[in-house]
Design a protein that fits this description.
mainly alpha; 2 helices; elongated
Amino acid sequence: MDFLKEENGKYSITRAAFGVWIFGVFLIWAMGSFYHKILMPIDGSILTLIGIAYTGKVSQRFVEKEKPVEVPAPAPAPEVNSPSPVVTAPVVRPTPPVPPMPGV
């Protein structure tokens, strides 16, 4: 089961999924070929899916081997000795009611 392990010793779920796909396709192909007594063709869409799964693993492997980019630590915030200023909203006073017009 060493083919399922990564270089760091951990198991690769992508390799396991790829192995299950290959095993399943081979098993169904072998059963169909045995039943019909001819070598059955494997559909192109199945081969495409297997190729996509393998390509994903290859690209993952390529990305894993790249050196991580070192991001410099952010500068510490300057210390503030005085409390932050309090911002208040302006006071809004309602307008006085308009007196009714005489004679209305």
